[in-house]
Amino acid sequence: MDFLTARILQQAEREGRFEHIPTELINLSTYESQPTVYSHHRNEWDGETNAANAFALYSPRAPDRSVRAGYQGDATGHLKCLSQRRRPSHVSNQADKLPFKDAAALRDVFDNFGLPTTYLHIADGSPAIAQCTISKTAKGRSKLEFVAHCVTKQGDWAMALSHDPSANSTSVYWSVDQRIPAEHLLEDLTAFKDSAFHPMLVPCIMFAAALEMAVRRRFDIKDCLRRLEKAVQLLHRHTSQSLLGAPEHPSELESRSRAMEEALGLLTTCRRAQASRDGRNDFWRSYQDALETGLDYAEHATSQVPTAQFDRAHDELKRWTALASRKLDSMKARNNDHIARVDIASDTLYNIVQQRDSRIQLSIAKASQRDNEDMKFIALLGSIFLPAGLIASVLNVQEFQFVGGAKLFGAYVAITVPFIVVVVTLCIARPHYKQWQERGLRGGRTERGHL
Questions:
Q1: Is 27 exposed, middle or buried (0-12, 13-18, 19+ CB in 10 A)?
Q2: Is residue 115 within 8 Å of 143, Cβ to Cβ?
Q3: Helix H segments across 113-200?
Q4: TM segments (predicted)?
Q5: What is the pLDDT of residue 72?
Q6: Is 140:167 a contact under the CB 8 Å cutoff?
Q7: Contact between 276 and 154 (Cβ < 8 Å)
Q8: How high is the pLDDT of residue 71?
């Protein structure tokens, strides 16, 4: 694993994937019969401070300073939290930058605080994953390591945590970007400071915060879906009115065109939001499994904590996690309901488009039919002049003359004019005959129905 870690850091240095981010240290120590010691040190590693001095003062290997403050007895637990309130921006299709000055600074932090280097294998931002593993220390005791990394539109965050039962100490690296309110997270940590001995306190706080971000994301999707359904309903009403033969004004046609564009855009947005649901669900499953593993570990690895004190904190975290899990299950069910509603809106929109295309095709077919009838009429009129030409040839009429010398022109007129009158009469009477025939057929069907 050390070889893989070194290779990851070397590659990050070659690619220039380091960006210095100020780091804060929150130090919590709990006691059986004394108040919890809380200290918050800002910007301990701003690039100018000597890191070695800071580690000597605040690393888990340092002696407990609260003893010098008058506290008696051993601490039941220590929590060393390295917090970053912002992260390098995530760029799609690119590996995330590591929020440290360089590889040496990152290695010093992870080595001095005993943080799991397995985090570096997911620190590039490509997977959204949470994992909790339990290993054995040199003394044969269990040791917990928890790593998580998540990239979302609501905010990116990362966590690397380790718990050493021999030192009763939990070390955690906790990094969130500026879209996530870090103050609220630290307020939650302060509110639960008496439970700082519990190794899963910070992961539980982040689980609840990530769930709140997911709920806000669902609200955005729900608002988009509501606007989609409204646009589809408006289009459906316009389509129904046009099918009933209601007159359409140019303004109505323009309004329908805008509604169609809006509906298609909203449908694309809803589909895009649902496209990554499998990946999100997989992340939530991995996070829930990691929490369950960590909570089970805590029941056996915190024997130094008095039973009543541990049970109170452990039960409270389990209730909190169980409630958050129920909210997550409800949100997943709502997401499935939203998927069904988007499918219904998509089918309705597809039917509306199909009806519009069918109406256009029907109009084209009717226009073609009218053109065919007109062409037939023209062809019939043209065919009348064919026998007239034959008669003119037989009678040797070279040209039409309107003077007295054309003795046979009267025969030409007497033959062709009756033909023209008969054909025109038949063409005019044909539609009326078809209407009369259709009324007769409808009347016959009605009489058979009464019988």
A1: buried
A2: no
A3: 182-191
A4: 196-215, 377-397, 409-429
A5: 45
A6: no
A7: no
A8: 45
- Listed in sequence order, the DSSP H helices in 303-408 are 307-394
- Surface-to-core class of residue 221, CB atoms within 10 Å of its CB (0-12 exposed, 13-18 middle, 19+ buried): middle
DSSP 3-37: HHHHHHHHHHHHTT-B-----EEEEEEE-SSSPPE
CA-CA distance, 181 to 148, in Å (whole number)? 18
- Cβ atoms of residues 115 and 142 within 8 Å: no
Residue 84 tokens, joined: 């970053």
- Tell me the per-residue pLDDT of 11-69, one tens digit each, with 9 for 90 and over: 989 988 899 998 999 999 988 778 888 888 875 544 444 444 444 444 444 444 443 34
- Rounded Cα–Cα distance for residues 76 and 95 (Å): 40
H-assigned helices in 244-276: 250-275
Q: What's the whole-number mean pLDDT along residues 236-263?
A: 66
Question: In the predicted model, what is the mean pLDDT of the chain?
Answer: 78
What are 226-233's contacts with CB under 8 Å, separation 24+?
227/262, 227/266, 228/263, 228/266, 228/267, 228/270, 228/342, 228/345, 229/341, 229/345, 231/259, 231/262, 231/263, 231/266, 232/263, 232/345, 232/348, 232/349, 232/352
Half-sphere exposure of 194 (CA within 13 A, CB side): 14
Q: Identify which of 259, 122, 116, 128 has the alpha carbon closest to the alpha carbon of residue 199.
A: 116
Order of strands, sheet of 37-41, starting from the edge strand that comes earlier in the sequence: 37-41, 24-30, 77-84, 169-176, 157-164, 142-150, 129-136
The whole-angstrom separation of Cα 142 and Cα 139 is: 9
Q: Which of 271, 280, 275 is nearest to 331 (CA)?
A: 280
| 273 CB-near residues (< 8 Å, 6+ apart) | 217, 220, 221, 224
pTM of structure: 0.70
Backbone angles phi, psi at 39, to 5 degrees: -140, 140
The tokens for 323 are 């409630």
